[in-house]
C-alpha cells in the first residue's frame, strides 16, 4: 500500500511539474471555453443603467457530485437615473424561475433571451430602493461546473463566471462598472462537504437531513464575475501574512482537497503566499481586502481564477499562485472598466509574476522574461488592445493580453528608468481607482502625472499598435582614433499598422582592452547614423537590447571595416558644433540661429537631465557636477542627436 502511495505521489509530482511549464497558457485557456452572453439591445442597456447594485445575496443548495442548483438570489439596488419604469436583470433562460418578488410583492415578469423584465406600475424616482428576490432551479449551461479532483477522483463543484457567465447561475447585472457594495453567498450542502467563497465565513448552520449551510459575506465592493463558491471535501489550512501597515495578521485560508496527498504535495508552495502578499503590499499598497482574508479553493479548472479574496486554483505553483494573488490588486480592487481594457487585469498580473520572481529566484525571473518574449514574438501582428470583446479567445489571448501585455509594463518600467517612481505610479493607480473600475487611459494619466513623462507615443505604438520592431545594424570602430560609427535601422513586423517604433534601445559594446560598455540610443526614424567619439579599447561585438527591455527581433548586425557615417560632415554643414569632446569642466553647443529652438540632455540610461531653449548661437553647459559617462543632446524633438563623453 505504501508503494502505491509513493507511486501516486511521484506521479502527481511529475504532473505538477508539467503543469508549471504550461500554467501561463492555461491561465488564459481555461477561460476561453465559456459561453458568451447574447449582446443586450440599447433599450435593455439603458434600463440596466438606470439603477446601481448595492448588494447581492445568493442562497442556494449545491453538492460536490452535480452541477444542479436550487435556491434564491437577491438583488438590492438604488435608482440612479430615473424615473425607472422597468427593472431588468439577467438569468439564463434554461434556469427555471419558480417565483419573483419585487419590493416584497409577488410579481409577474417577462423573459427575452437571458433578460428578465419586471414592469413597475408607478415609476421609481432617483434614490428609490429596489429589492428583487428570485427563486430558481436548474442545471447551468456554463458558469457552474462539476468534475473530479486528481488525487482520489472525488467530486468537486465550482463556479467560474469570467467574462460573461455569472447569469448562468444567479440573477445578476453583468456590467463591469457597477460593482455591488457587498455580497453574501450561502450554500447548503451535505455535512461531509465544505464550501469556500468570498469574504468571511460568518456562520456554519447545521440543518436537518445531515446538511450544513455555509454563510459567507464580503463587505468590499465586488464585480459580478468575481463572486464564486466551491463545494468539495476539503481540508482547511490557514496561515497568516504580516505585511507592513496591516492592523492585524491577514489570514490565508486554503481549502485543499481532503486527500492527504494534496497537502503533502502543495504545502510548501502554499507557505510562500505570506511572502508574496508582503512583496506585493510593499510594491502596490497594502493587500486590498486585509479586513477579511485571502484564500484558495482547489478545483480541477486547469489554471486559476482570481475570485475576490478566494482564488480558485487547480494546483499550487509559484507562477500560478503569485499571478492569481496579484489580481487582488489588478482586477479585483481595480477592475477593468470594459473587456477591451482586460490588459489592466491580465497583463498586470502576468508582469507581477516577474516582479515576484525577482525577489524569490532570479533564474525564474530570467526564464519568465525569455518565455514571455518568445511568445510575444511568435506572430508578427496583434494588439494588446482588444478590438473584439465578443470573442473570449481574443479577450484572454495568451500571447497578446498576457505576455505582450506584461512586457508592455516591463518596457514602461525601462522608459521611466526609476523603480521608485515606477512603483509609486502603480501605488497611485491603486489608490486613485481603489474599489472601482479603470481604463487604459486612466492608468496612462496616473503614470504621466506621477512621472512627468508623456506616454502618448508609447501607448499608440505598443498598446494600440501592432507587432514589434525589427532592428539591423552596421558598425565600425576605427583604431587608434577611437570613433565608433553606427547605423541603426528599424522596421515594424506589421508595417501597415505600426511602421516605426519611437523608443530608446540599449546596445552593448563588447571591448578588448577595456570593459564592456552599454550605450542607449533614442530612435526616432527608420535609419539613423551615429558616431561615438573616443571609444576606448577595441570593439569586438555589438549586441542590441542585451537585457531584453524591448519586444524586438534582430535581423542582422554587420561589422563593416569600411563603414564611416556622414553625421560629422552633416553637423559641420549645418554649422552645428559641440566642443570640446570629450569634455571635462564644460561643453559648448553651437547651433545656427533660428535653426533649432530646443534641446534636451539625456544620460546613457535615457533619463532626461535638462531641457533648455536655444536663444543664441552658443550654449555652454557647466559639467563640474556631472558624473563621468556618455551623454546625448537631442535637438528639436529628435531632429538631430549629438553625443559627448564627460571625463
Care to give the gist of this entry?
This protein has 13 helices and 36 strands.
3D architecture notes:
The protein is an alpha+beta fold and 647 residues long. The protein folds into four domains: 330 residues, Immunoglobulin-like (Sandwich); 104 residues, Neutral Protease, domain 2 (Orthogonal Bundle), CATH 1.10.390.10; 97 residues, Immunoglobulin-like; 79 residues, Immunoglobulin-like (Sandwich), CATH 2.60.40. The protein has 13 helices and 36 strands. The strands form nine sheets. Strands 5-4-8-2-1-11-14-13 form an eight-stranded mixed sheet, with no helix packed on it. It has a five-stranded mixed sheet with strand order 16-17-18-20-19. Strands 9-10-15-12 form a four-stranded antiparallel sheet, with no helix packed on it. Strand 25 and strand 26 form a beta hairpin. Helix 5 crosses helix 6 and helix 7 packs across helix 9. It is elongated and about 95 Å long.
The main sheet orders its strands as 5-4-8-2-1-11-14-13
Task: State the major sheet.
Answer: 8 strands, mixed
Poorly predicted spans? 1-26, 32-36, 567-573
CATH class of the largest domain equals Mainly Beta
What do we call the CATH topology of the largest domain?
Answer: Immunoglobulin-like
CATH superfamily of the largest domain: tricorn interacting facor f3 domain
- Percent of sequence in beta strands: 35-45%
Distance separating the two termini = 74 Å
Amino acid at each position: 500500500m505504501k508503494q502505491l502511495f509513493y507511486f501516486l505521489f511521484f506521479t502527481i509530482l511529475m504532473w505538477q511539474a508539467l503543469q508549471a511549464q504550461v500554467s501561463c497558457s492555461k491561465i488564459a485557456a481555461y477561460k476561453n471555453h465559456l459561453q458568451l452572453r447574447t449582446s443586450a439591445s440599447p433599450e435593455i442597456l439603458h434600463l440596466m443603467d438606470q439603477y446601481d447594485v448595492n448588494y447581492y445575496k445568493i442562497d442556494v443548495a449545491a453538492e460536490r457530485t452535480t452541477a444542479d442548483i436550487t435556491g434564491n438570489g437577491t438583488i438590492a439596488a438604488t435608482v440612479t437615473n430615473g424615473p425607472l419604469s422597468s427593472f431588468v436583470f439577467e438569468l439564463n433562460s434554461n434556469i427555471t424561475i419558480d417565483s419573483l418578488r419585487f419590493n416584497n410583492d409577488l410579481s409577474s415578469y417577462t423573459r427575452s433571451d437571458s433578460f428578465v423584465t419586471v414592469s413597475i406600475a408607478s415609476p421609481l424616482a432617483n434614490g428609490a430602493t429596489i429589492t428583487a428576490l428570485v427563486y430558481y432551479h436548474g442545471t447551468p449551461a456554463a458558469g457552474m461546473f462539476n468534475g473530479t479532483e486528481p488525487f482520489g477522483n472525488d467530486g468537486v463543484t465550482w463556479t467560474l463566471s469570467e467574462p460573461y457567465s455569472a447569469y448562468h447561475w444567479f440573477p445578476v447585472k453583468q456590467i463591469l462598472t457597477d460593482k455591488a457594495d457587498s455580497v453574501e453567498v450561502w450554500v447548503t450542502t451535505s455535512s461531509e462537504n465544505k464550501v469556500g467563497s468570498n469574504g468571511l465565513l460568518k456562520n456554519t448552520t447545521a440543518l436537518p437531513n445531515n446538511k450544513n449551510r455555509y454563510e459567507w459575506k464580503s463587505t468590499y465592493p465586488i464585480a459580478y464575475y468575481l463572486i464564486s463558491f466551491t463545494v468539495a471535501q476539503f481540508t482547511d489550512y490557514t496561515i497568516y501574512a504580516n505585511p507592513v501597515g496591516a492592523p492585524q495578521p491577514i489570514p490565508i485560508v486554503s481549502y485543499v482537497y481532503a486527500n492527504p496527498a494534496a497537502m503533502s504535495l502543495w504545502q510548501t508552495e502554499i507557505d510562500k503566499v505570506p511572502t508574496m502578499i508582503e512583496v506585493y503590499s510593499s510594491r502596490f499598497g497594502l493587500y486590498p481586502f486585509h479586513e477579511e482574508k485571502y484564500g484558495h479553493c482547489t478545483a480541477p479548472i486547469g489554471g486559476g481564477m482570481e475570485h475576490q479574496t478566494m482564488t480558485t486554483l487547480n494546483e499550487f505553483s509559484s507562477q500560478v499562485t503569485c499571478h492569481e494573488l496579484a489580481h487582488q490588486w489588478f482586477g479585483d480592487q481595480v477592475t477593468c472598466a470594459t473587456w477591451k481594457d482586460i490588459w489592466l487585469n491580465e497583463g498586470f498580473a502576468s508582469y507581477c509574476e516577474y516582479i515576484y520572481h525577482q525577489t524569490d529566484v532570479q533564474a525564474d525571473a530570467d526564464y519568465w522574461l525569455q518565455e514571455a518574449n518568445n511568445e510575444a514574438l511568435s506572430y508578427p501582428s496583434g494588439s494588446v488592445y482588444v478590438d473584439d470583446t465578443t470573442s473570449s479567445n481574443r479577450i484572454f489571448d495568451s500571447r497578446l493580453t498576457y505576455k505582450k501585455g506584461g512586457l508592455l509594463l516591463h518596457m514602461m518600467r525601462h522608459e521611466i528608468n526609476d523603480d521608485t517612481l515606477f512603483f509609486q505610479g502603480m501605488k497611485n493607480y491603486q489608490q486613485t481607482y481603489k474599489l472601482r473600475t479603470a481604463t487604459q487611459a486612466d492608468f496612462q494619466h496616473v503614470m504621466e502625472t506621477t512621472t512627468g513623462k508623456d506616454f502618448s507615443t508609447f501607448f499608440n505604438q505598443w498598446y494600440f499598435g501592432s507587432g514589434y520592431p525589427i532592428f539591423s545594424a552596421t558598425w565600425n570602430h576605427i583604431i587608434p582614433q577611437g570613433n565608433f560609427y553606427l547605423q541603426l535601422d528599424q522596421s515594424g513586423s506589421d508595417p501597415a499598422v505600426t511602421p516605426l517604433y519611437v523608443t530608446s534601445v540599449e546596445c552593448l559594446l563588447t571591448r578588448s582592452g577595456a570593459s564592456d560598455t552599454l550605450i542607449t540610443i533614442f530612435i526616432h526614424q527608420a535609419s539613423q547614423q551615429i558616431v561615438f567619439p573616443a571609444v576606448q579599447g577595441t570593439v569586438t561585438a555589438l549586441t542590441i537590447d542585451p537585457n531584453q527591455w524591448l519586444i524586438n527581433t534582430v535581423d542582422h548586425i554587420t561589422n563593416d571595416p569600411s563603414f564611416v557615417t556622414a553625421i560629422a560632415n552633416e553637423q559641420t554643414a549645418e554649422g552645428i558644433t559641440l566642443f570640446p569632446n570629450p569634455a571635462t569642466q564644460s561643453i559648448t553647443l553651437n547651433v545656427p540661429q533660428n535653426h533649432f529652438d530646443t534641446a534636451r540632455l539625456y544620460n546613457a540610461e535615457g533619463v532626461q537631465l535638462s531641457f533648455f531653449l536655444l536663444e543664441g548661437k552658443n550654449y555652454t553647459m557647466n559639467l563640474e557636477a556631472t558624473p563621468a559617462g556618455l551623454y546625448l543632446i537631442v535637438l528639436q524633438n529628435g531632429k538631430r542627436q549629438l553625443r559627448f563623453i564627460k571625463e
